[in-house]
Amino acid sequence: MNIQHQALQVAIETAKMAGAFLKKHFGDDKRVDEASQHDIKLELDKLSQALIFGHILKVFPDHALLGEEGVEGNSASPYEWIVDPIDGTVNYYYGIPLYCVSIALRYQGEIIVGAIYDPMLDECWYAEKGGKAYKNGVEQHVSPRTKMAEAIVFIGHGKTDGSKEKGLQRFAHVSGQVRKIRIIGSAALALAYIASGRFDAYVESLVSIWDIAAGKLIVECAGGRVDFTPFSEGSTGGSIIAWNAAVPIVESLGD
């Protein structure tokens, strides 16, 4: 078994393990470690990431790990795991069953493995570089829709650096062009939904690499396109446009 395929199996197994842990505690009272007006960090974010990091390092002790809750491992390794231990933390905290675990591996800067697991619906999307995208063993494809009037689009927005204003402007501009706009509170699930043809596009001015690393590969392997533009070289944040490679989302933004 080559390292890429082995890593894919580890990503799937680890995402499901962390997902089961989160689902077990979904109805519990949750300890908030940090809160702002627009976001929440939970103790369970850290516990989930520790579980994920520990399992990966048992198999790949020399790899680097980058997560929303910090870094670990060998920073000099060309292999770097990118982890969001709970994507959709605010949903999770409020008891809204729209959250997931996202795990990716990049080699020399290129994403080669991705897995996203929704424990509430027991749906696991995954892909490896050069292969197809799958959900629970079934090959996935982006939607064939070509018209904005038929599209379901996720327009997200951040809270800082003007991204909120940009997102709201885009929301107003695009909403009249599409069938529906949805904001579900999880970038990783939005990308997974594009890969499965549930959504047609996703646009956001401010996301982190751990939000979208796995989903980027999964969408591309399902036949879609993802443009992620880091704010600067080496930055963990950037803007994203993801779509089914058919609807004219880029032209429709009016930026």
Overview of the structural elements:
- By secondary structure, this protein is an alpha+beta fold.
- The chain is 33% helix and 31% strand.
- The protein is built from 7 helices and 15 strands.
- The protein has helices spanning 3-24, 43-59, 89-93, 163-175, 187-195, 209-221, 249-252, and strands spanning 32-35, 40-42, 64-67, 70-73, 79-87, 100-107, 110-118, 123-128, 133-135, 138-139, 152-155, 180-181, 201-208, 225-230, 237-243.
- The strands form 3 sheets. An 8-stranded mixed sheet has the order 4-3-5-6-7-8-9-10, with helices on both faces. It has a 5-stranded mixed sheet with strand order 12-11-13-15-14.
- Helix 1 runs antiparallel to helix 2 (43-59) and helix 5 runs parallel beside helix 6 (209-221).
- 45% of the residues are buried.
- The mean pLDDT is 89.
Give the secondary structure arrangement, pairings included:
Elements: H1 3-24, E1 32-35, E2 40-42, H2 43-59, E3 64-67, E4 70-73, E5 79-87, H3 89-93, E6 100-107, E7 110-118, E8 123-128, E9 133-135, E10 138-139, E11 152-155, H4 163-175, E12 180-181, H5 187-195, E13 201-208, H6 209-221, E14 225-230, E15 237-243, H7 249-252
Parallel strand pairs: 3-5, 11-12, 11-13
Antiparallel strand pairs: 1-2, 3-4, 5-6, 6-7, 7-8, 8-9, 9-10, 13-15, 14-15
Helix pairs in contact: 1-2, 5-6
